[in-house]
Amino acid sequence: MVNNPLTRNIDMSRGPLDLGGFEAADGYASLHRIVAGLSPADVLGQVKDSGLKGRGGAGFPTGLKWSFVPQGENSPKQKYLVVNADEMEPGTFKDRLLMEGDPHLLIEGMIIAAYAIQATVAYIFLRGEYVGSEKALKKAINEAREKGYLGKNIQGTGFDLEIILHTSAGRYICGEETALLNALEGKRANPRAKPPFPQVSGLWGKPTIVNNVETLCNLPGILRYGIDWYHGLTLGKDHGTKLFGVSGRVNNPGCWELPLGTPIREILEDKAGGMRAGYALKGFLPGGGSTDFMLPEHLDLKFDYEEVGKAGSRLATGTMIVLDDKTCPVGMIGNLMTFFSHESCGFCTPCRDGLPWVDAIFKELESGRGQHKDLEILHEHVDYMGPGRTFCALAPGATAPLGSGLKYFAEDFEQHVSSRDCPYRH
Amino acid sequence: MSAEVIASSKRRGRRLSEAERAEIEHEMTLYPDKQAVGLEALKIVQKHQGWVSDESLLGIAKFLDMPVADLEGVATFFNLVYRQPVGRNVILFCNSVSCWIMDSDKMRAHINDRLGVDFGGTTADNEFTFIPVPCLGDCDNAPVMMVGDNLHRRLNAEEIDKLIEQYRQQQGNN
Predict the structure, then answer these.
(1) Which helix (DSSP H) or strand (DSSP E) does residue A305 occupy?
(2) Model ipTM?
(3) Residues of chain B with pLDDT under 70
(4) Looking at the 3D structure of chain A, how many domains does it have?
(5) Among A161, A247, A317, A344, which would you mutate to test the B interface (most chain B Cβ atoms within 10 Å of its Cβ)?
(6) A100 to chain B: which residues are within 8 Å by CB?
């Protein structure tokens, strides 16, 4: 039985499968089920039952999100599907692999999602730097259109779908779904107030579902092989497989598809080959730059939403960033604060003014000019910029490595102040 | 350019070239309103002109029938839209966390040393503009940078010297 539904067709040494090759590997099977009479409500029901959670970072149940889209005669006729392919979370390199490696899988996933919510137009919001993904997706979209899998009255089902590839031009905030919608409408990418949620009033005020690339790539397998198969993939409580990545000073950094619930130690030691000679593990961010640090004592936890959550962090994108014992934790967190400070959209005060302040303090600490009261200010900002204090999740994301770093690496912070120097000299 | 200058400079708008207009018009078919293609139009003009000058900005705003200030708001929001002239090659250098752990600071210093410019700078011969970019999503190959459409992985000092030489030599082939 297939146990790697996301990456089974990916072989980066030969380039992605074309439509013929993809179909020979069971591709577009879900479309044939739709042609055979599977209704949008059936698709929604199966995705709900699968337990699939969004793979973009928040982990929201996909079927539940779809169910908020108004349906029926009185609902707005135009609905939209938007793919969040704006992968820009620091340390995250998973959606690129899917788009460059198997673009037809994403297109099949998009057809399934669009059919379920009855969207006739779907935009792929792709980050501008991903030129390899752009090329692969363009080719795949054209092939699917020529074959009649996109366009009007697809395969006689009466269902229409156009896929439009939008390439963006930078800015991390575009990954926030309402900021992304503003960007797609040609505006500055400031987040919107919620409610209304995009499912009800999104792109140009129409019901809109925004899903991450990896989330959508889960759908073809669910429809092709069924719920029992999907539930059988996992090693933990959350269902399915997940792309897990490891970067930093490990022997074999990379990205692999593994069951959710795979022990963290297995990913770090077996897949990533453990720490490089001369380096020891000091901590790691489990799912990109906006997650709380975890420690070597957490290595035997299962890598899934629940267990990572119990350890005080988030699975988020599932791509770990490893901190070794010869890299300065203060410098690493400082690098993240510079990033978040640059990427603030500037709309709300805690984020716009708080992050540059925090960033400036880290620069003082690293250059030996930090004082004890600076550490107090950092602690205060974990609260000032935390969840509920800001307009969107950007600054709260920044407080995750900041707050956990201040807690776990307190000695390092103290040492920077007392010795008036960075003891690591990175 | 200040708002005042923009408001008083409507006549300075450049008439977009036929190629630019044709590409922007194609984008218009993909979105329900003209404003939505503002970013696409800026990118199209930048592809043809190398950057987005005040004259281009005014020309695009007129073509899309939208306020110049709105378009400028978009142009200045997105970091890959260049509102200043850039060199023939733009180096987008990842300065995010995974690359930082893998010594990207040393690579940045090396490029600075070789080119004589740091982030935001353009070399005197107009060959290179050197700017930082958030995580390029290639963290298992850190440190990385992009030059044009090309991604360069696992950078070290020798590799950077080779690349700089290679891009210099491509002059005239474009």
Answers:
(1) helix A305-310
(2) 0.95
(3) 1-11, 171-174
(4) 3
(5) A247
(6) none
Task: Say if residue A352 is in the same domain as residue A399.
Answer: yes
Q: Which of B77, B109, B131 is the last residue of a domain?
A: B77
Residues B162, B94, single domain; the answer is yes
Q: Is residue B174 part of a domain?
A: no
> If 0-12 CB within 10 Å is exposed, 13-18 middle and 19+ buried, where does residue B8 land?
exposed
Mean pLDDT within A246-268 = 97
Q: Which of these three, A292, A324, A356, is where a domain ends?
A: A324
**Beta-strand relationship, B128-133 and B89-94:** parallel
pLDDT digits (tens, 9 = 90+) for A22-81: 999 999 999 999 999 999 999 999 999 999 999 998 899 999 999 999 999 999 999 999
CATH number at residue B163: 3.40.30.10
Interface of A with B in 120-179 (CB under 8 A): 127-132, 164, 166-172
CA of A229, closest CA in chain B: separation in Å?
Answer: 31
The answer to whether residue A383 is domain-embedded is yes
Domain of residue A406, residue span: 329-418
What are the chain B neighbours of A95 within 8 Å (beta carbons)? 137
Query: Residue B148's closest CA among B93, B62, B89?
Result: B89
Task: Determine the 3-state secondary structure of A228 from DSSP.
Answer: helix
- Does any domain span residue B137? yes
Nearest in space to A78 (alpha carbons), one of A110, A109, A122, A40? A122
What was the pLDDT predicted at B4? 57
Minimal CA separation from B66 to chain A, in Å = 11
Tell me what pLDDT residue B2 has. 57
Q: Is A45 helix (H, G, I), strand (E, B) or coil?
A: helix
Residue at which a domain ends, from A302, A324, A346: A324
Which residues of chain A does B146 touch, with a Cβ-Cβ cutoff of 8 Å?
Answer: 129
Domain boundary (B47, B77, B107) is at B77
Cβ neighbours of A188 in B, within 8 Å? 73-74, 77
Per-residue exposure over B80-94, b if at least 16 CB sit within 10 Å of its own CB, e if not: bbbbeebbbbbbbbb
Q: Residue A56 maps to which CATH number?
A: 3.40.50.11540
Nearest-CA distance B31 → chain A (Å): 8
Helix (H) or strand (E) segment spanning residue A167:
strand A162-167
Give residue A425's pLDDT band: very low, low, confident or very high (50, 70, 90): confident
Q: Residue B12 gets which letter from DSSP? A: G
B143: nearest CA in chain A?
Answer: A248
Q: Is B114 in the same domain as B63?
A: no
**Domain range spanning residue B94?**
89-169
Average pLDDT over residues A198-217: 98
CA distance A248 to chain B (A): 6
Task: Give A305-357 pLDDT, tens digit per residue.
Answer: 999 999 999 999 999 999 999 999 999 999 999 999 999 999 999 999 999 99
